[in-house]
């Protein structure tokens, strides 16, 4: 069952991956009369280039008297675009291509036969969107567009296909993967040293860290291939596979730790299994959505739908993983009241509460704060949001590993009477605590 599911997913991934070409994009437009079609966004430095190859152009009306200068491609910053919209509204210009605020790359007047190529040099550093405008509303356009945007780097004019704010990402990912490899090494050492008190969950944690390291290595390779050649050379497929495995394992791990599986009890309750049965398929959906989102770019036709699917699924997963922790906290509080081992349970209780808060912080930070950073930082510093998210993830891994490490002198079982009494006192206060 599990294997057939994995295979299916792999097929789906390869299917999606085959139509995405990373930073060099190939787009087919078929009988489209949208007045504005945005293609792609890119952060240029002072040595930016845009290569545009348009072929197979067919217009629904091939009347030679048409004003072909009213159909074409232009580059525009977001701020400028708002002004252009205002100009259009005030009827200062009739076509976005005529506005002085946009940089026209090429219009259809330069068409030879059914195709044209254009090379545009962008000298003003900024984040631009490549947009197609068709101001002849009665005309439907079909064409194949290949667009490549890059910056020339250094004295040798090496092409850098990564947007200005993302160009250091390969190094960032590579460095982080080294950090996780080190963490995995440390963890193996800890497991070996404390092998008498190791639970199954500790091996699970090891697997998650190793997958995370592989995931980052693939992402580094993927990005560095894109940087050099404009396409990922298959590394994106590996990256998606590891992302998928890591995503499922991480959420499962959070649920398992939350239930206290293998720490507190060797089995899972039915309702806890149900949480896993919800989270795992949802992670599959989330990963498929992520693949589509990444590969189609922000202006692909299904982008918004998939983005919404992803957000919804992600929110459901994040909420679902909190339930087992809450149940554990509830159980521990009840147990602490009924049986005599107040101190033991109180310690576990504190641990689970900390864990609960840290999981919430982790989710909040990697979803909300990272997103906010991404929105407010200038295009030149887009990498900062990636680094912030990765550091939060790293902190979460380290916290989880540290708090749930195998311990020879497990404090849960060695407790003296004094502590026991103090704990019983504290538990009375705890009763007032509401989650
Ligand atoms: C695309 O256009 C550029 C710029 O004119 C040209 O150098 C390049 O050879 C073209 N590529 C293809 C595949 O036609």
TrEMBL record:
<keyword id="KW-0675">Receptor</keyword>
<dbReference type="GO" id="GO:0005794">
    <property type="term" value="C:Golgi apparatus"/>
</dbReference>
<feature type="transmembrane region" description="Helical">
    <location>
        <begin position="305"/>
        <end position="327"/>
    </location>
</feature>
<feature type="transmembrane region" description="Helical">
    <location>
        <begin position="379"/>
        <end position="399"/>
    </location>
</feature>
<feature type="transmembrane region" description="Helical">
    <location>
        <begin position="172"/>
        <end position="192"/>
    </location>
</feature>
<dbReference type="InterPro" id="IPR009637">
    <property type="entry name" value="GPR107/GPR108-like"/>
</dbReference>
<feature type="transmembrane region" description="Helical">
    <location>
        <begin position="199"/>
        <end position="217"/>
    </location>
</feature>
<dbReference type="GO" id="GO:0016020">
    <property type="term" value="C:membrane"/>
</dbReference>
<keyword id="KW-0732">Signal</keyword>
<feature type="transmembrane region" description="Helical">
    <location>
        <begin position="355"/>
        <end position="373"/>
    </location>
</feature>
<dbReference type="Pfam" id="PF21904">
    <property type="entry name" value="CAND6-7_N"/>
</dbReference>
<dbReference type="Pfam" id="PF06814">
    <property type="entry name" value="GOST_TM"/>
</dbReference>
<keyword id="KW-0472">Membrane</keyword>
<feature type="domain" description="CAND6/7 N-terminal">
    <location>
        <begin position="28"/>
        <end position="151"/>
    </location>
</feature>
<feature type="transmembrane region" description="Helical">
    <location>
        <begin position="237"/>
        <end position="263"/>
    </location>
</feature>
<keyword id="KW-0812">Transmembrane</keyword>
<feature type="domain" description="GOST seven transmembrane">
    <location>
        <begin position="170"/>
        <end position="410"/>
    </location>
</feature>
<feature type="signal peptide">
    <location>
        <begin position="1"/>
        <end position="22"/>
    </location>
</feature>
<dbReference type="InterPro" id="IPR054103">
    <property type="entry name" value="CAND6-7_N"/>
</dbReference>
<feature type="transmembrane region" description="Helical">
    <location>
        <begin position="275"/>
        <end position="293"/>
    </location>
</feature>
<keyword id="KW-1133">Transmembrane helix</keyword>
<protein>
    <submittedName>
        <fullName>Transmembrane receptor, eukaryota</fullName>
    </submittedName>
</protein>
<dbReference type="InterPro" id="IPR053937">
    <property type="entry name" value="GOST_TM"/>
</dbReference>
């Amino acid at each position: 069952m599990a294997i057939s599911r994995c295979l299916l997913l792999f097929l789906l991934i390869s299917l999606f991956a085959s139509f995405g070409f990373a930073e060099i994009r190939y787009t087919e437009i078929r009988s489209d009369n949208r007045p504005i079609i945005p293609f792609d966004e890119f952060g240029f430095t002072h040595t930016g280039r845009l290569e545009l190859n348009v072929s197979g152009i067919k217009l629904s009306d091939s009347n030679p008297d048409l004003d072909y200068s009213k159909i074409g491609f232009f580059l525009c910053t977001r701020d400028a675009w708002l002004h252009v919209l205002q100009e259009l509204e005030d009827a200062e210009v009739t076509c976005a291509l005529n506005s002085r605020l946009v940089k026209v790359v090429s219009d259809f007047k330069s068409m030879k036969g059914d195709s044209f190529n254009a090379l545009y040099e962008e000298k003003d550093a900024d984040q631009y969107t490549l947009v197609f405008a068709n101001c002849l509303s009665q005309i439907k356009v079909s064409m194949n567009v290949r667009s490549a945007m890059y910056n020339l780097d250094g004295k040798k004019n090496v092409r850098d296909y990564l947007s200005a704010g993302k160009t250091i990402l390969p190094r960032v990912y590579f460095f982080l993967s080294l950090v996780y490899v080190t963490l995995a090494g440390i963890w193996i050492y800890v497991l070996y040293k404390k092998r008498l008190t190791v639970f199954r969950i500790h091996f699970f944690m090891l697997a998650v860290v190793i997958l995370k390291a592989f995931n980052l290595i693939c992402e580094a390779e993927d990005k560095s291939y894109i940087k050099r050649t404009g396409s990922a050379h298959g590394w994106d497929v590996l990256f998606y596979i590891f992302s998928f495995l890591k995503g499922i394992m991480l959420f499962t791990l959070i649920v398992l730790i939350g239930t206290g599986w293998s720490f507190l009890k060797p089995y899972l309750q039915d309702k806890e299994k149900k949480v896993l049965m919800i989270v795992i398929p949802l992670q599959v959906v989330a990963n498929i959505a992520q693949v589509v989102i990444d590969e189609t770019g922000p202006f692909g036709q299904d982008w918004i739908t998939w983005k919404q699917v992803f957000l919804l699924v992600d929110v459901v997963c994040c909420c679902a993983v909190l339930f087992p922790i809450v149940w554990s906290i509830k159980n521990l509080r009840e147990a602490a009241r009924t049986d005599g081992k107040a101190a033991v349970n109180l310690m576990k209780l504190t641990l689970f509460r900390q864990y609960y808060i840290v999981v919430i912080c982790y989710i909040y930070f990697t979803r909300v704060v990272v997103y906010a950073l991404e929105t407010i930082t200038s295009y030149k510093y887009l990498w900062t949001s990636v680094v912030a998210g990765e550091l939060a993830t790293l902190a979460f891994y380290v916290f989880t590993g540290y708090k749930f490490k195998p311990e020879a002198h497990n404090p849960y079982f060695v407790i003296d009477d004094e502590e026991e009494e103090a704990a019983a006192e504290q538990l009375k206060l705890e009763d007032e605590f509401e989650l």
